[in-house]
């Protein structure tokens, strides 16, 4: 026999387990908030900018070919900037705890399309250290690129600064809590439907009809007397085609 679930049954199931769903949802949000505010370490980000462009004199004119060459070199510069040849010197100069490989994971180098400006962003738990690393990377790269590629077309456009009271870029507690609410709600609803699916007990006449595939003829409520008072229990006897089934 094919089983179908109506929208009313789904709504009834959700309403019956509403407390469980709300408990799981708000528990997930609470745990996310505690972890975001009290467990995770705030991470700050600072950025510096480099300009890839040959220094000009008053006699020199704008050269489109040279600009195009600089644009093509930027992708190469982005790779060199995060290479051990640069980062190892940064680690030694700043006396950082960690390796060049670990420092590489904190640095992001990117440039806009058809732009000669390169942004160097550094994330660290200490905003002042993040600014120092970003500036040192820019300085070391500007000096070393002359020896590595025999070109001198890099200048520092803007230095990184650790502003007082700057906000961390991660974690983002409000975003994490919102995500936890959605995930908790989905988990709660999923758990409710799983419990309902695994529950094979017979509770209503409709359950018996579905299991036995027999029409219901009627039901009789059992009345019992206790301590001189008459009470009506919910036990029922249901008749099906001449048979009586006690429940």
TrEMBL record:
Keyword Nucleotide-binding attached: no
Subcellular location: Cell membrane
Residues spanning the signal sequence: none
Region annotation (Disordered) ranges: 228-247
Keywords associated with the record: Cell membrane, Membrane, Transmembrane, Transmembrane helix
An annotated GO cellular component: plasma membrane
Tyrosine-protein kinase G-rich domain boundaries: 142-194
UniProt source species: Bacillus aerolatus
Protein name from the UniProt record: Capsular biosynthesis protein
Residue ranges of domain Polysaccharide chain length determinant N-terminal in the record: 3-94
Membrane topology: Multi-pass membrane protein
Family note: Belongs to the CpsC/CapA family.
Transmembrane stretches, start-end: 20-40, 174-195
Entry GO MF terms: protein tyrosine kinase activity
Pfam families: GNVR (PF13807), Wzz (PF02706)
InterPro entries: Bact_polysacc_biosynth/exp, GNVR, LPS_length_determ_N
């Amino acid at each position: 026999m094919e089983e179908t679930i109506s929208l009313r049954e789904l709504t009834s199931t959700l309403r019956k387990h509403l407390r469980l769903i709300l408990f799981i949802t708000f528990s997930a949000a609470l745990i996310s908030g505690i972890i975001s505010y009290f467990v995770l370490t705030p991470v700050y980000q600072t950025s510096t900018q480099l300009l890839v462009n040959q220094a000009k004199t008053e006699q020199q004119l704008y050269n489109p070919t040279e600009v195009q060459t600089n644009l093509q070199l930027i992708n190469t510069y982005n790779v060199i900037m995060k290479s051990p040849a640069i980062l190892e010197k940064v680690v030694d100069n700043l006396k950082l705890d960690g390796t060049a490989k670990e420092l590489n994971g904190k640095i992001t180098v990117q440039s806009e399309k058809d732009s000669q400006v390169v942004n160097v962003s550094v994330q660290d738990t200490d905003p002042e250290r993040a600014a120092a690393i970003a500036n040192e990377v820019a300085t070391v790269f500007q000096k070393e690129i002359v020896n590595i590629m025999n070109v001198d077309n890099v200048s520092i456009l803007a230095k990184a600064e650790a502003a007082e009271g700057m906000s961390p870029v991660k974690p983002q507690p409000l975003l994490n809590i919102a995500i936890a609410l959605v995930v908790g709600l989905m988990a709660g609803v999923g758990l409710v439907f799983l419990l309902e699916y695994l529950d094979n007990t017979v509770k209503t006449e409709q359950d018996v009809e579905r299991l036995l595939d027999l029409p219901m003829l009627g039901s009789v409520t059992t009345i019992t007397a206790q301590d001189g008072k008459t009470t009506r229990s919910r036990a029922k006897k249901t008749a099906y085609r001449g048979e009586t089934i006690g429940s």
